[in-house]
Specification:
The protein has 107 residues and is of the alpha+beta class. The protein has four helices and five strands, in the order E-E-E-H-H-H-H-E-E. The strands form two sheets. Strands 1-2-3 form a three-stranded antiparallel β-sheet. It has a two-stranded antiparallel sheet with strand order 4-5.
Length: 107
């Protein structure tokens, strides 16, 4: 079963993912910004990682692993894919740098 998507209106339109009643509770409910939710060239895992980076541009890979429940290898693969698509880049050092999103590369 997939996620039900409903729109919430506030200062920015966002999509809220809700677990269906019979679905296992593997992932916490989280808000994905509308600008990320409408990206057609990204899969759900990429959107979830981008959402975390939007909320905290200094987020560490280990924090992404903890927040998503994905394996370290999966997070590395997602970040690599986002870099290959030129949607995401890293500015500064790996320890003290920030993630930079390139919205012009997004369809």
């Amino acid at each position: 079963m997939g996620k039900k998507i409903s729109a919430h209106y506030g200062t920015e339109m966002e999509y809220q993912a809700h677990d269906e009643p019979n679905e296992p509770k593997n992932e916490p409910n989280e808000t994905i910004p509308y600008s990320i939710a409408k990206m057609t060239n990204l899969d759900e895992r990429e959107k979830r990682v981008l959402s975390l980076i939007c909320n905290n541009s200094r987020i560490a890979r280990t924090d992404i692993v903890e927040a998503t429940g994905y394996s370290t290898a999966t997070v590395k693969r997602i970040l690599s894919a986002l870099r290959d698509k030129e949607i995401l880049s890293r500015k500064g050092s790996t320890r003290n740098g920030i993630w930079v999103m390139n919205f012009s590369a997004i369809e």
